[in-house]
Amino acid sequence: MNTENKYQKLVLSLLFDAIGYASFIIPGFAEITDIIWAPAAAYIMTKMYKGNKGKIAGAIAFIEEIMPGLDVIPTFTLMWLYTYVFKNKKEEKVTKTIDIDV
Asked: SS3 string of the chain?
């Protein structure tokens, strides 16, 4: 994956998490907007991250947005970190282990 696409996803992730937080600006407004935003967030997540990983992240995003009080969790940003930071480090360790054993 090219670096440009990687950082575009980071910017989008921060934007979508900000949209999720924005519902807290007006008290009582969060519950109404979450009914619309929860399925939209789940859909967007499945489009940003393909395969089972995206489906699982979409389900988590839906639950996080629909449940009261969980909107503070930055689901999109956490998924980006998992995909591009934590998972890559794990893959690097596996590659290094394979190189040593060969």
From this structure: CCHHHHHHHHHHHHHHHHHHHHCCCCCCHHHHHHHHHHHHHHHHHHHHCCHHHHHHHHHHHHHHHHCCCCCCCCHHHHHHHHHHHHHHHHHHHHHHHHHHHC
